[in-house]
Amino acid sequence: MTRFQKALGILLSLCFFTILTIVPEPVFTGKNVYRHLPLYRFLEKKSREIDQYGDQKTYEAIASENGKYLRQKAKEEQTSISEKEKKKNSKSKKKQKTKKQKTKKTEKKNTSRETISTAVPDPAIDLSPDLLADYDYLLGQFYIVDSNTETNPVQLNAQDFLKQDFKISKDTDTPQILIYHSHSQETFADSREGEEADTIVGVGDYLTQLLAENYGYQVVHLKEQFDMAGGELDRSAAYDYARDYLEPYLQENPDIQVIIDLHRDGVPEDRHLVTEINGKPTAQILFYNGLSYTTAKGSLEYLPNPYIQQNLAFSFQLEYQTAQYYPGFYRGIYLAGYRYNLHLRPRSILLEAGAQTNTVQEVKNAMEPFAYILNKVLQG
After folding, report:
1. Same structural domain, 49 and 105
2. Tens of pLDDT along 221-240?
3. Is the pLDDT at 139 greater than 80, yes or no?
4. Does residue 121 lie in a domain region?
5. Residue that is last in its domain, among 60, 84, 114
6. 72 with 151, same domain?
7. Which of 122, 208, 266, 290 is the most core-located residue (most Cβ within 10 A)?
């Protein structure tokens, strides 16, 4: 290149820079013309790198701060969640504790209801020996005498009754207690027709279960229908039919020591024989004794009963225990003129549990306290 060409190049460059100074962004391009120069592009590139570097630092700084912020928020949220969980767990534990306490209270309440008898006898009447020795007091507190018979202080002697020992051993595999029903068709206020469980026989099933499972006795429950003749209800000869069946049965089972003829009473429709025992509505009970003696005929020789005194003592001891533990449970001991098959064993009783105006459940509830007092007498 000649000197002239070099000078011309310099001159033209100066002119170009002069034009660029005066018109930085020519209107005909709409773009930055500086980018046509290598130097400008070099400086622009460096500037971008510096900006990018600065942006990266700023981003990292922001990210770092954001990280701290997010970690802090996460920590706070975690703490908040933990606190909420603690509170929730605390509430849950309190609820569970309260529930457990309620459950324990309920269990305690239920246990108290299921516990037969209170810890200490609480008789409603005075059972002191001196008063029991008073015939009129004894008669008035314990007995109901049918108008067709009569008794006397010699026959009803509380001191003699309480001396008698009716204890039996449970160490046997043979039947000890016999339950039957002279009147098997007796039903209750809410009995379902055709349902044996709702009759006096169903009540006998429950008594059998209590004596066997709760108290360990060998019990047999006879369900023969002694009050049915040819498919029809006939109670006129029920005791005769029952005796004809029981006498050979007892010969075959000589270890049976207790016989219970389980009935329900018949009362006016407006009378409800119920009390409350252990929180349950419970039908009241009545013991029945036959004296084989009527005021019209005197001693009934054709109805011999060698066990009258033993059975009077047995029913009195049952009533005596009832008077201590369940004062509102017993109605008394009914004394009637005939025999009612109570001559078969020394520990024979006829038990009237509730009446036709009681519910099935009320009468079944009555078997629980009765089983309890029966066990007390049989254990001496």
Report:
1. yes
2. 999 999 998 889 999 899 99
3. yes
4. no
5. 114
6. no
7. 290
